[in-house]
User: Fold this.
Amino acid sequence: MKTAKIQKTKIYKRKGKEIDILIYYRMLLQRISRHLSPEEVSFLMGKPFDFISKFETFKTKRIFMYDLLVMHHFLEVNSIDSMVFVGAKLSLQKYEYELHLTQLTDRVIYELYKIDVEQDQKVMEFKLIDIRHDIDPYTNSTTEEVKKIRILLDEQIDAGYFNEEKEPYEIQKLCCTELKRYIQPKNLMLVLDELLQGSEAARIVRHQTERGFGYVLAAHAKSTEKK
Assistant:
């Protein structure tokens, strides 16, 4: 039986309270359980594509409650308690933590340790395993799905769908409904990126709004700006 070869391990450090780590754990767990990459979750939230990745690697150490609620909605979590541990009695003391992120040939392993300075040891808080989202084992079905999304969005542009700004989650929901199947956000992102570079008549733009990033036909972009 072959073992997965380790490609690289990176270590990220932060100091935080127990509640910070529990929220972090739940966000990571919910994303992995939905088989979504950090970029896909960021996309659905209307955030910069590295938004979730920065949080998961401690480059961003805090997240606003509003963003938690948005992520809770897009990941279709049944209860917000599953994300933030409402009512849990937790220590207010801050601890040192280390995240060991290991990439294998087909998966990514997240191991979080609490550093016990007095005992000079590391205590594992959790270990989660994700797939490698940059590797596609279903190239044929992905190609077919991207083709269907491309045709659908071209039709929607002609029908005036993008004359008004559309949020990423709205567009994904439309694709799922019209194509009668769950559409991978990463495949929708590929088609939208193509449309950002499209011809003048069919080109869309991605711009910042008070809610996040949205997509609109370039010719109608100014009419959607906040008055």
